Amino acid sequence: MKLRIETSSIDTLTIRLFDTIDEANMPWLRAAASKLREQFGDHLIDLVPSYTTLMLHYDMQEMTDSQACERVQRALAHLETAPPPQPGRLHEVPVWYHPSVGPDLLRLARQTGLTPEQVAIRHCSREYQVFTLGFAPGFAYMGLVEEALAIPRLATPRRSVPTGSVGIAERQTAIYPLVSPGGWNLLGRTPVALFDRTREGYSLLQPGDRVRFIRVEQPEFILLGGDDTPMEPLL
């Protein structure tokens, strides 16, 4: 880990700790975020962790850019010797894997030489780290998907992806929290609500959390409140 501080705007710093994406980065990014919140206190406007960096938005009426950089250096001076914090919450997310709600499932099965059931089983076989939130409210970028299931984004994104759709893009997996356009390969759908304005923090998933997908069949999916309205496959 090597600390680098970059000025992104007149009141925003990008704090770079790593150069490559790795699941082992997140405990250190969480530890850094905790120390920065303590150091900046009420002068912190926002702090957003990502794969290798943290974006820090501070109150420019209370400090200059150089003063903000000094605070960052003080906060993280001894981070290397700090023990990593406990991992974030583990969420078990039920998913109905089926071509009617996961229109790319059959194509991924063909490309990997697996059956659709085997694709689902392997997608459920590991815990995924939540790296960062973005694209849409509550949209969590998670990884790392095993290499055998890695598949590029769609060349032409769909105009509308239903809420709860579970997809893969390269070695990342994600759940669409709201109806939106999207180019991820869809394998199934979950009934779990990812974004709720009445929830503290709004998003169910937060950076540092872990997710394990649980395979369910259609009756249980519906019982849990899932919408089984089918999607049209891409031509």
From TrEMBL:
<keyword id="KW-0067">ATP-binding</keyword>
<dbReference type="InterPro" id="IPR010016">
    <property type="entry name" value="PxpB"/>
</dbReference>
<keyword id="KW-0378">Hydrolase</keyword>
<keyword id="KW-0547">Nucleotide-binding</keyword>
<feature type="domain" description="Carboxyltransferase">
    <location>
        <begin position="3"/>
        <end position="205"/>
    </location>
</feature>
<dbReference type="GO" id="GO:0016787">
    <property type="term" value="F:hydrolase activity"/>
</dbReference>
<dbReference type="InterPro" id="IPR029000">
    <property type="entry name" value="Cyclophilin-like_dom_sf"/>
</dbReference>
<dbReference type="Pfam" id="PF02682">
    <property type="entry name" value="CT_C_D"/>
</dbReference>
<dbReference type="GO" id="GO:0005524">
    <property type="term" value="F:ATP binding"/>
</dbReference>
<protein>
    <recommendedName>
        <fullName>Carboxyltransferase domain-containing protein</fullName>
    </recommendedName>
</protein>
<dbReference type="InterPro" id="IPR003833">
    <property type="entry name" value="CT_C_D"/>
</dbReference>
